[in-house]
Amino acid sequence: MILTEWFIFFLILQVIHFLGTWKLYVRAGRKGWEAIVPVYNAVILMKIINRPWWWVILLFIPVINVIMLPVIWVETIRSFGKNSTTDTVLVIVTLGFYIFYVNYMLDVTYIKDRSLKPRTATGEWVSSILFAVVAATIVHTYFMQPYTIPTGSLERTLLVGDFLFVSKFHYGARTPMTAVSFPMVHDTIPLVRTKSYTSKPQYPYFRLPGFQKIKRNDIVVFSWPIDTVRFFRDQSKKSFYKPIDKKSNYVKRCVGVPGDSLSIVDGYVHINGKRNQLPDRAQLQFSYIGTSKGRNFNPQNLYDRYRIKPGEFGFYSNTQFRAAGMTEDAAKKFKNHPNVVSIERNVTAKGLKDPSIFPNNGKVNWNSDNFGPIYIPEAGKTVKMNLTNFSLYRRIIEVYEGSELGINNKLTVNGTQVLLNGKSIDSYTFKQDYYWMMGDNRHNSEDSRVWGFVPENHVVGKPVFVWFSWDTNAKGLFNKIRWERMFTTVGGNGKLVSYFKYFLIILAGWIIYNQYRKRKKNA
């Protein structure tokens, strides 16, 4: 829905609310016209049902409002003596329209000073759970979201099995675009494996102000732009339409920001002609090919000494081997192994075409190691639109600045002319910023080299904290926990520092203090 459509929809809701409640307003000692004035009618309704005025704010927060509406329906009928379980069920299953029946057909009396305490233990338990869900959803949606690292594309910086907190407020929280969805989950309801949302209606895209912009080399969580899978890592080939905010979440390093000219030379990213310098905690990894004197290697020893996972090491022949996900420092050390004759980084030569590489049309001689140059679009900036740029920016124009925003854009070619919606164009001005995301494990990362640009409206947040880390390859429960990674920051320079012991000290101090207060109070 566009903004105008939502405004009309909002006015329709006001009319429905007025028709269904105006007599109840009068019975509560208010004026009938107060039921039709937008926002004001909600404030008055909170007074009628004896609830705080700030509940009105919750009605205008996406996702939260879907949870709050049934609560207000129930509170409304209970304010007029309809307290039975049947009344509660009817008002919920009729999506609030049972209030019409109460308003017009029943002779109800307003209970001004009704008790707000649930009459049963079950009711109290449900109320507690409901508002815990509301509070958690607000935090999850607008402030901080838990996230798990599922793949090794950012190995060494973020490991498979890291549990993160992702800040929504650093770059500005993206308000939900999906109006109706199951709270506290992403695209799939756990266990039952069913879709957690309805594709329509959709709110317009809006992002709250952040206190910093995405900087080059930041690690960013974003919605996977080309996601059509039912849920993350779904192996089925069937495609599903997914709204922007319900696409699978990916985490990569932003190596190119809006306005950059980016190229990849022999596996290294270059920005505006200069090689990109990564932070000291980042460790680039590549695959290597070497020659040995024989198969006198123990993969587990390699993992312990050179941090090469057993599954990333293997032989092509009796003497030729491959080692994936290895840093340059590890490769230098590995070269000194007594059974290693030679080892070289595996680089696809410049000019060799890879059709799976963006723009995925097989018309450019690019591959994962030698790519570009390519301009990363910036909002408000204009590029020439010719047959070369047509392939690079077609998806941006048709999808990210077209169908996903409710605009029917169609980019075609007629001879040497580029046509936008049937009209010839020689330039195009971008409506939003775009980013280029890549993994540090360069030969084990599906990233922008495969599917292209990441639009700003797909940005989710910034990983800031690792609160737990689990190594599935380790043996023994105690060894599986990566204690040195618990309570560590994702960003920063220098050696990784764990704040877990300080957390335990503070927690112990808090428990002792509470026990002291309790004993003092009892005394």
What labels would you give this structure?
single chain; 523 residues; alpha+beta; 8-stranded antiparallel β-sheet; 4-stranded antiparallel β-sheet; 23 strands; 29% helix
Topology:
Blueprint: H1 3-27, H2 40-48, H3 55-58, H4 64-78, H5 85-93, H6 98-105, H7 121-142, E1 144-148, E2 162-167, E3 188-189, E4 194-195, E5 219-223, E6 249-256, E7 261-265, E8 268-271, E9 274-275, E10 285-292, H8 299-306, E11 313-315, E12 320-327, H9 328-335, E13 340-345, E14 371-375, E15 382-384, H10 387-400, E16 411-414, E17 417-420, E18 423-425, E19 427-429, E20 434-438, H11 448-451, E21 454-455, E22 459-469, H12 477-480, E23 488-489, H13 500-522
Antiparallel strand pairs: 1-2, 2-22, 3-4, 5-6, 5-22, 6-20, 7-8, 7-14, 8-9, 10-12, 10-13, 11-12, 15-19, 16-17, 17-18, 20-21, 22-23
Helix pairs in contact: 1-6, 4-5
